[in-house]
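Please complete every field before forwarding. Incomplete forms are returned to the sender.

SECTION A: IDENTIFIERS
Entry label: holo-696
Bound molecule: zinc ion
Molecule representation: SMILES string

SECTION B: INPUTS
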Amino acid sequence: MRFSALLALLLAMCTTSFAQSDAAPSSSSMPALQRFSIDQVDKTLDPCSDFFQYACGKWIKANPIPADQGGWGTFNMLAIWNIAAVHNTLEEAAQPSANRTPVQQKVGDYFASCMDEDAINKAGLKPLQPELDRIAGIKKKSQLPEVIASIHLMIRPANLNFIDAAYQGVLFGVYSAPGFDDARVTLASLDQSGMALPGREFYLKDDAKSKEIRDKYVQHVARMLELSGESTPQAAKDSQSVMAIETELAKSAMDIIVRRDPKNLNNRMSLKQVQALTPSFNWKQYFAAMQAPPSPQYTVTAPDFLRGMEKLLQSRSLEEWQAYLRWSVLHSLASSLSQPFVEENFDFFGRTLGGTKELQPRWRRCSIYADIDLGEAVGQAYVAKYFPPENKQRMLDMVKAIETALGQDIDAATWMSDSTKKAAHVKLSAQIDKIGYPDHWRDYSAIEIKRDDFLGNVQRSSGFEIRRRIAKFGQPANRTEWDMTPPTVNAYEDPQHNTINFPAGILQPPFFDTSASEGNNYGAIGGVIGHEIIHGYDDQGRKFDAEGNLKDWWTAADAANYDQRDRCITDEYTQDVPEAGVKQNGKLSAGEDTADNGGLHIALAGLENTLKSQGKNLESPSGNGITELQNFFLSWANVWCGELRPEIARTAVMTQGHSLERYRVNNVVGNMPEFAHAFGCRAGQPMVHANACRVW
Ligand SMILES: [Zn+2]
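SECTION C: PREDICTED COMPLEX
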């Protein structure tokens, strides 16, 4: 995936799961939108001893994780509401009628094809047979580039909408991204990939839990191959080959902490140099089969990975590669195949890896797939119905107020020199704020959507998306495009385009609520806005300049001051996480933790400025019996109310940059004297850190 910093990890929304035929909601039976309420606070507890428990304990008890989810919280509830909203628009579009617009026809027929489970089951593996035959027909390893290209053109490329354990590129990943040294031009990027487990640690760690997961994974691979027609002994043998190849890929892949420093990814090469790294893989052949235009240069994020790939290409037999490719195709498209594949896929990735008990209802999965595959077509009806233009203006006003607050924070910083402050201001004013949805909708008219061919629809829309990205090689950077679809409950910052992006999906209660107080909105969506703004100035973002170039604009002394402050955060978050059964590495989560801490600071300053302009202050009553300041902190906690199943929590702490919800609340407020003031906490209490960390 591109170098972007997200707000949240939404594993639960994305598990490729399968279905009971639960009745789908009609417009009249949409789930209720949750609004923040003071009643959910547990007043029997002391906010100064465990604020998360005080603010969220009652909520969590009243809202257990549903059987078809890997976690449950405020985010997921809104995501489910959005999917139900999207589903309403899809159902309408799916009704055959002469009045449908071309966009409705496309998304409606896609949805109808996905819902026709009988036809999908009846077709079985037949729609995938041409691809499996092509793999079976490989005569020599020199044909691999062409076959891998054909696979890359029919599976979903990595997408910020779904951080999906079940998605991985085959052998390697290919995408387009601004050059690290010159962000004006889009370059081809070649990245490590090809491992179906959620991270390289899953292949390399030696503890009992990791070994157990690997054993079950090999059994799962064998069962998928058996379902595709292999004999039991052949499938057992092939699953060992798959595991051996993926383990070797994991060994040569770059470590996640090393990967966090963008300079380690900035390896620019000519195609000739790429070719020299992997003499056994003909890149000209591969890119020709992808119909990719030449790229002025190629960013090879992990050269050691390509070196490892070369060794594997030499050492593994053609038969082993065929097993790996057959598995990769079945795995990547499992959720679009017949029921046995969907259920086997869910059994491992949903149940074993995610702790999820049940498949999501089919209508919901089909709505999610439509959003992933045709997002900006699906999003048009969603936005028209659920995101009024006045909300966009209100949101823009808040973003501006919080940016102003960061500007004031930069000016007040005692640890930065004037020259670094000046460069920081230049960067801040060059940032583009994108709210809700794109100004120009993506045109999907080139994709052929058939009402009776779900797998084909997924393959063709995936091919469209990968071709769209590849067509950008050598083109000028485009800062107006979106990497998330409108109904997504998430947000991201993109340092190479210097943008912050808030899809309409997160601009709903309890994040953004036009009927709620300023304190409520600044604590919830304001904290999210602050988080994304600060990503531009966290340990990764601060290395990119106003134009998105990886270029140092810090004096050596200021950078040293930054690192010292950053270390406080890193040490604080290197902590035991008992609910995940593993220890958190603060170096992995440093960027997200800095964004949470700094983001809430500037959101609070934005609130104070806004209240002042209205003749009020932080101690003003906010209408629900508490002050605006108390409301601010409770609203921040409220958006993180929820929990993950232990299996998901373990994966998240091991492989993702986000701290778990409890720590996103408690560690942050413990660093803020304003919190101690709001709730009358005293030195020595758990929510008052003796060594309070502060970068921004
Ligand atoms: Zn983030």
